């Protein structure tokens, strides 16, 4: 699961990040909402965890920006506020959940799982292939196809943007994160992945990137 965490208290933010990464999640943590807006692709995430009381912009304003690109990604607001006005405001703008500080990290983990489990896990790619977006598993006629971690991330972002072209830079940033890789590295990975497939459902859009067509 890929999580966007924005929390201006760095001690709390790093604690949440470390804990969730121990549960095999990928967590992008920012203490600055403006920096997050400059760098992230909102639709790449499974869930947002947002503090409300931040100095640059509050969590509500930040979520309004995210919703323009990823209205279907659930958000949990994290806050020290306990009054009903803030709780009501959070749910009015579309919060899936609201957790008050201080809280146990295990409780946050359980709330995240509850929300993500509600989402459809499996996406049908072709008549014979489907991809489990929660567990990052590809199945052919019900049998799991063995994939490397990077192949899983590649399919994950294409499936999340099914029917749309995902450009080369976005793919490289998503798969390798902080590492700098060239286009040929990505092309080599795609070639190896295609060799494992009985159907070539990965389409190369020349000069742009890759896509998976949406089933009719």
UniProtKB/TrEMBL annotation:
Domain named Response regulatory: residues: 2-116
Keywords: DNA-binding, Phosphoprotein, Transcription, Transcription regulation, Two-component regulatory system
DNA bind region: 121-214
Molecular functions (GO terms): phosphorelay response regulator activity; transcription cis-regulatory region binding
Coiled-coil region: none
Domain of life the protein comes from: Bacteria
Signal peptide range: none
Keyword Transcription regulation belongs to the record: yes
GO cellular component, one term: cytosol
Protein name: Two component transcriptional regulator, winged helix family
Lineage: Bacteria, Pseudomonadati, Campylobacterota, Epsilonproteobacteria, Nautiliales
């Amino acid at each position: 699961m890929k999580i966007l965490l924005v929390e201006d208290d760095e001690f709390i933010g790093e604690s949440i990040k470390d804990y969730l990464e121990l549960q095999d999640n990928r967590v992008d943590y920012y203490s600055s909402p403006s920096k997050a807006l400059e760098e992230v692709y909102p639709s790449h995430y499974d869930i947002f965890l947002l503090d409300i009381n931040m100095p640059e912009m509050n969590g509500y304003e930040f979520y309004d920006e995210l919703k323009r690109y990823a209205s279907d990604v659930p958000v949990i607001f994290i806050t020290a506020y306990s009054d009903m006005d803030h709780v009501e405001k959070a749910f009015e703008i579309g919060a899936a959940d609201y957790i008050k500080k201080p809280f146990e990290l295990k409780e946050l983990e359980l709330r995240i799982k509850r929300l993500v489990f509600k989402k459809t896990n499996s996406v049908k790619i072709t008549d014979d292939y489907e991809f489990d977006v929660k567990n990052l598993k590809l199945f052919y006629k019900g049998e799991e196809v063995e994939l490397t971690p990077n192949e899983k991330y590649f399919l994950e972002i294409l499936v999340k943007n099914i029917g749309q072209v995902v450009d080369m830079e976005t793919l490289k940033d998503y798969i390798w994160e902080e590492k700098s890789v060239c286009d040929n590295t990505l092309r080599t990975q795609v070639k190896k992945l295609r060799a494992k497939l009985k159907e070539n459902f990965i389409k190369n859009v020349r000069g742009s990137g890759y896509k998976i067509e949406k089933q009719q």
